[in-house]
Design goal:
The complex is a heterodimer of chains A (829) and B (237).
Chain A lengths: L1 H13 L4 H36 L3 E5 L5 H9 L3 E14 L2 E10 L9 E4 L7 E3 L7 E4 L1 H7 L6 E4 L2 E11 L13 E5 L1 H6 L8 E8 L2 H14 L5 E4 L5 H49 L4 H37 L13 H26 L19 H20 L2 H35 L2 H12 L1 H35 L7 E7 L3 H10 L4 E15 L2 E2 H4 L2 H4 L2 H4 L2 E5 L7 E6 L12 E6 H7 L6 E6 L2 E13 L10 E3 L10 E6 L7 H9 L4 E4 L1 H53 L4 H39 L7 H27 L3 H7 L1
Parallel strand pairs in A: 3-9, 6-8, 15-20, 17-19
Antiparallel strand pairs in A: 1-10, 1-11, 2-3, 2-10, 4-5, 4-8, 6-9, 7-8, 12-21, 12-22, 13-14, 13-15, 13-18, 13-21, 16-19, 17-20, 18-19
Helix pairs in contact in A: 1-8, 2-7, 2-8, 2-9, 2-20, 7-9, 7-10, 7-13, 7-20, 8-9, 9-10, 10-11, 11-12, 11-13, 11-21, 12-21, 13-20, 13-21, 20-21, 20-22, 20-23, 21-22
Chain B lengths: L1 E12 L2 E13 L4 E5 L6 H8 L7 E6 L2 E2 L5 H11 E4 L11 H11 L5 H11 L15 H14 L4 E5 L7 H18 L2 E5 L3 H5 L3 E6 L2 E7 L1 H13 L1
Parallel strand pairs in B: 3-8, 3-9, 6-7, 7-8
Antiparallel strand pairs in B: 1-2, 1-4, 4-5, 9-10
Helix pairs in contact in B: 3-4, 3-5, 4-5, 5-6
The chains are: A alpha+beta (829), B alpha/beta (237).
Bound molecules: adenosine-5'-triphosphate and magnesium ion.
Subcellular location (chain A): Cell membrane
Main location (chain A): membrane
Keywords (chain A): Cell membrane, Membrane, Transmembrane, Transmembrane helix
Chain lengths: 829, 237
């Protein structure tokens, strides 16, 4: 049997019968391998980058000392672990004091990324991974001003003195922390005990920074998760960077979607090609059966064919896919996350196995048909195989599809969405089939003869026509949604960090310093977005009740009611906020004794606050009330100071305020900061430029990755279109040749073929647009959190491109053959 | 060799039961040559398909080489075909991807007999295609293709050979050549032959002519003498 299978294969090969199926499979595997491994590599590289924000792949935080055995275990597993203690304390030098947050390290820091240490504030530093020596301290530049010290000076730290050894220019850290946490200092862990600074009962956080190869790291993290108690917390790279989290997650969803989509495209191409292959083999099968082959044998024969096609196609696709991905990664390494991680086996295996599975799922139904041809077909040509009940076929294909998608994307949500869209597409295709029939009838009365003939071709083989339109349409749906999603993500990311966004903040500016500060800024040509007041106060009452009376135990634990809050007043809704309930004040009228309040919706939800509730604040010993008139959503990743509670203008008049301002400052202008610090030493400078730059560069790279994948999906889509056109080419060729043999003129043949192609293109394009809009909007709302948008611009373009592509490529494939003598073509087919 | 009893075939066409063959009872002995004739649509091909087990009757019995075909399922009938039956069709039905030689080897291999290549070559020599062994069907003329088909039909040394209009697609000259070959080989190998045709000259070369009309046997005559006469005439030419 194998012998015969090999011979059949060789002959099919020579006769070009397996060409198209093999082509489709090769493209499919190539796309899956290439998209899969590019996605995987970019994804892991992005993971590496976000680890740099965290300073490690993972952190493990615990309020109590961490068992040494746990650390030992990790180190034995080959992981790098730096132990640290974190606590707040007051540094002093002469009469100056500053609350700082201390990080005491027992090893190298950071494990991922670098820390930049300089000799002077606001200058470029040395990039390194290091640990302060015992007896020394590294501090953030703003502390120097407050304490009035320079590098080389000593400062008091508990019962000992530490030498200032360097200024921290940039360090891993979370952008959102910056506004809330005291400036950071780094010391050696041994100095904590020596300084005798941590008292019984003071809050001390024990943190492990963990880094290492995924193979060693992930099991250890899993183990930690199983061991840890609820007060202990594990944070991965991505969670540590809220500003990037959303962007990275979306990029990841996009990439996953892309690899998933490659499966769909592959399936479509293969299904069409396999359908065609099996049709061509019905006659063979009938002859085999007539000569006495049993159904089982014919099945076996064709399963062997399938296997051989599968192996060859997967092999070719694998080789091409690997080549392509390394080509792309090398060619564009400058734009991709750095350092680029090596290729990993998983997507390669997944890709090539998927090829075989797609082949089975989409080609097997057609191949199983072959043996079921009644042998009587040798006498009665019109006999077709008994159809498998169609739901078996659909179930098989859909099952395989869903499984593969899940395998590739690991996201049930995406799989669900795509399956839902598949149903919509199916209904659309039914509708279109009905249309074709109607149009056929209509043109049958009106169109010129060649047009009628062309349309007749479509009507005559409805199943084949529909499978072509489905394939073309799906390819367009997928290409369109990829393009649309990509534009949406890109514009979103651009707006997240617009050019010239403020990257420096001045906090703690005193009332009398406002004017001098404005003039310094003006002189140096720095423009601000205004200087805002900030009042520190606590929430002490709700609706004439104390908090103890008004809130339950859990609510009382919410941080915002336990500590002092930054309060402010504003005339307009701040940029990164959106009013979600109630209305923003139109103009201020604090005539009545109660100011209007705007509260962040998350806080309101946690505390059970509603519009109309009255909050009482205690500010510097005085009390003031306000009524909630609106709730806001706050975008925490915006690099803007965010306020839980905002008063209407005038609402905080009379309370001692400090001021806050922000501006964009390029590196070369950073000298201004020294001037400001000299003239107003108590002002706190928060530098976000380094972190914003890093975020920007990651966004740039993610953007690039998304562009690539889009390009690749487009290429794969075009390949599918081409493959399907190849499949149908013979059909058209044959009908054209018959026409020719019957004496039709070239012009007539051309017109009829073009009519057929144009109609195909138009229907596919319309299907593509409708399906694409549906898919994109479902994806927007379910996976990307974007509002519904329609894209009328594409409603015209996609069908036009579809008609153009299918018309031109379809025509080019036939043109030269039409010039051959009819009998030669007829003989060959 | 072949025996039918009250063989009936009805098909359902557009909601109506259509009887295309009714009560055909025939017995064909070993080494008989039988022609089935009749006008177009009289049910000749239908009868042939039932005799060869390509299709199942609606009623009645078919026994081929002792096997009750009407009681067998598809695969069992295929097995009977593999062991006993050869075919020649009007439209040749060669496998286009196989060379002439490979086409002829196929049934031998299916029967799992050895020396497939030698025997196939021998047969192709007999039909005068010694030089065309490696040619593919699309490189052969219709007459040549049908000669390959005849070689293929005899390749598995079938006990019975069915031919449906073997000369129907050929001109007179090629048709004669093909029918000569068919009868010669048949005689040499002692095969039973059942031949469907509406060519009277071809039918007369058989020992017996069964005439169908509207799905019924209307005549069943032995034409032994005529056949011998025809053969003599052909030989003289
Ligand atoms: N499955 C079927 N459905 C409907 N009608 C059928 C079917 N099979 C055969 N027939 C009809 O039965 C009749 C006999 O057909 P058959 O092919 O046996 O004729 P034939 O004698 O071989 O004719 P010809 O000489 O033209 O080949 C024809 O009228 C044909 O249309
Ligand atoms: Mg017939």
């Amino acid at each position: 049997m194998l012998n015969m299978a090999l011979r059949t294969f060789r002959r099919d090969w020579k006769a070009g019968e397996v060409k198209v199926l093999l082509f489709a499979l090769t493209i499919a595997v190539m796309a899956m391998v290439a998209i899969g491994s590019i996605t995987d590599r970019v994804h892991r590289a992005m993971g590496e980058q976000s680890s740099e924000f965290l300073g490690a792949d993972y952190t493990f935080e615990s309020p109590r000392p961490i068992d040494d055995a746990w650390i030992e275990r990790g180190r034995n597993d080959g992981l790098e672990i730096t132990r640290s203690q974190s606590f707040a304390t007051v540094l002093s030098s002469d009469d100056n004091f500053q609350l700082v947050s201390v990080r005491a390290l027992d090893g190298k820091f950071p494990l991922k990324g670098t820390i930049e240490i300089a000799e002077k504030p606001f200058t470029q530093g040395v990039v390194q991974q290091a640990q302060p020596k015992a007896g020394t301290i590294w501090l953030e530049p703003r502390i120097l001003g407050v304490l009035g010290v320079e590098v080389g000076d000593t400062i008091d730290f508990g019962s000992i003195q530490l030498t200032v050894d360097g200024v921290i220019v940039a360090a891993p850290g979370q952008a959102s922390e910056v506004f809330n946490v005291a400036p950071k200092v780094l010391i050696h862990i041994d100095d904590v005990e020596k300084a005798n600074i941590v008292q019984e009962g003071s809050r001390l956080e024990h943190i492990l920074f963990i880094a290492g190869e995924p193979a060693a790291r992930e099991p250890y993290i899993q183990w930690l998760k199983s061991q840890k108690n609820p007060t202990q917390e594990i944070t991965g790279g991505k969670e540590g960077t809220p500003a990037l989290k959303a962007a990275l997650e979306r990029a990841e969803t996009f990439l996953r979607l892309a690899s998933l989509i490659s499966v769909v495209l592959a399936g479509v191409a293969i299904a069409v090609a396999a359908g065609r292959y099996s049709q061509r083999h019905f006659d063979y099968s009938a002859i085999y059966r007539c000569l006495g082959m049993q159904i089982r044998q014919v099945h076996k024969l064709y399963l062997w064919q399938l296997l051989m096609i599968g192996l060859i196609g997967s092999g070719l696709g694998l080789a091409l896919g690997l080549g392509l991905q390394s080509l792309i990664i090398n060619q564009f390494s400058d734009y991709l996350p750095k350092p680029m991680v090596g290729i990993s086996l998983a997507p390669v295996i997944t890709g090539s196995l998927s090829g075989l599975v797609v082949l089975l799922g989409f080609a097997l139904p057609s191949f199983l048909q072959i043996a079921k041809v009644p042998p009587l077909r040798v006498l009665r040509k019109e006999l077709l195989p008994r159809a498998m009940s169609s739901w078996v076929i659909y179930l098989l294909s859909i099952g395989v599809m869903a499984l593969l998608m899940w395998w590739q994307s690991n996201s049930l949500l995406l799989v669900g969405i795509l399956l839902a869209v598949a149903v919509v597409t199916y209904l659309l295709i039914r509708l279109i089939a009905w249309f074709i029939f109607k149009i056929g009838v209509w043109l049958g009365k009106r169109g010129s003869l060649p047009v009628r003939f062309g349309v007749g071709q479509l009507k005559q083989y409805p199943a084949f026509t529909i499978s072509q339109i489905s394939a073309f349409g799906l390819a367009f749906i997928i290409m369109l949604s990829t393009v649309l999603l990509r534009s949406e993500l890109l514009s979103e990311w651009q707006s997240q960090l617009p050019e010239g966004a403020p990257n420096h903040f001045l906090v703690n500016v005193q009332e009398q310093e406002v004017e001098p500060l404005e003039s310094i800024l003006q002189e140096s040509g720095v423009s601000t977005k205004g200087i805002y007041p900030m009042v520190r106060g606590r929430v002490v009452g709700l609706n004439d009740m104390t908090l103890e009376e008004a809130l339950d135990e859990n609510q009382q634990r919410v941080g915002a009611v336990r500590r002092e809050l930054n309060l402010t007043w504003m005339a307009d809704v701040p940029e990164a906020n959106k009013v979600t309930q109630g209305e923003w004040w139109s103009e201020s009228d604090v005539a009545d004794d109660r100011a209007e309040l705007s509260v962040g919706e998350e806080l309101a939800q946690r505390l059970g606050l509603e519009i109309g509730d009255v909050l009482k604040f205690s500010i510097g010993g005085l009390e003031v009330e306000g009524e909630i008139t609106n709730l806001r959503s706050i975008q925490w990743d915006s690099f803007q100071p965010n306020f839980f509670i905002i008063f209407e203008p005038g609402g905080l008049d009379g309370f001692p305020a400090s001021y806050i301002t922000s501006f964009h400052l390029p590196v070369e202008d950073k000298g201004v900061l020294n001037q400001i610090l000299r003239e107003m030493p108590t002002v706190t400078i928060i530098e976000l430029d380094a972190i914003m730059e890093q975020v920007q560069s990651i966004l740039d790279q993610v953007t690039m990755a998304v562009e690539f994948i889009m390009l690749f999906v487009l290429l794969a889509g075009i390949a599918v279109l081409y493959a399907v056109l190849q499949v149908s080419r013979e059909e058209r060729l044959l009908s054209a040749t018959l026409l020719k043999a019957l004496g039709a003129r070239k012009k007539f043949i051309r017109a009829s073929i073009l009519a057929e192609l144009i109609l195909l293109g138009a229907f596919s394009g319309v299907l593509g647009v409708i399906g694409g809009e549906v898919l994109v909007n479902i994806l927007y709302s379910q996976a990307f959190d974007i509002d519904l948008v329609l894209h009328p611009w594409y409603w015209l373009w996609v069908p036009m491109i579809s008609v153009g592509f299918i018309g031109i490529v379809g025509w080019l494939g036939l043109r030269h053959l039409l010039n051959q003598p009819a009998h030669q073509v007829l003989r060959e087919y | 060799m072949l025996r039918t009893q009250e063989l009936t075939k009805t098909v359902n066409s557009q909601g109506q039961d259509l009887t295309i063959l009714s009560d055909v009872s025939l017995t064909v002995n070993e080494q008989d040559t039988v022609a089935i004739v009749g006008v177009s649509g009289s049910g000749k091909s239908t009868l042939l398909s039932l005799l060869a087990g390509l299709d199942l009757p609606s009623g009645g019995e078919v026994h081929l080489a002792g096997e009750p075909l009407h009681q067998l399922d598809e695969d069992e009938r295929a097995a009977v075909r593999a062991q006993n039956v050869g075919f020649v069709f009007q439209s040749f039905h060669l496998l286009p991807g196989l060379s002439a030689l490979e086409n002829v080897m196929l049934p031998i291999e299916l029967k799992e007999q050895d020396r497939a290549k030698e025997r196939a070559t021998e047969l192709l020599e007999k039909v005068g295609l010694k030089d065309r062994l490696q040619h593919y069907p699309n490189q052969l003329s219709g007459g040549e293709q049908q000669r390959v088909a005849i070689a293929r039909a005899f390749a598995s040394e079938p006990k019975i050979l069915f031919a449906d209009e073997p000369t129907g697609n050929l001109d007179t000259k090629n048709g004669n050549k093909v029918s000569d070959l068919l009868f010669d080989l048949n005689k040499q190998l002692g095969t039973t032959l059942v031949l469907v045709t509406h060519d009277d000259r071809l039918a007369e070369r058989c020992q017996r002519i069964v005439r169908l009309e509207g799905g019924k046997v209307v005549a069943d005559n032995a034409v032994a003498t005529q056949t011998e006469a025809t053969q003599a005439a052909t030989a003289e030419q």
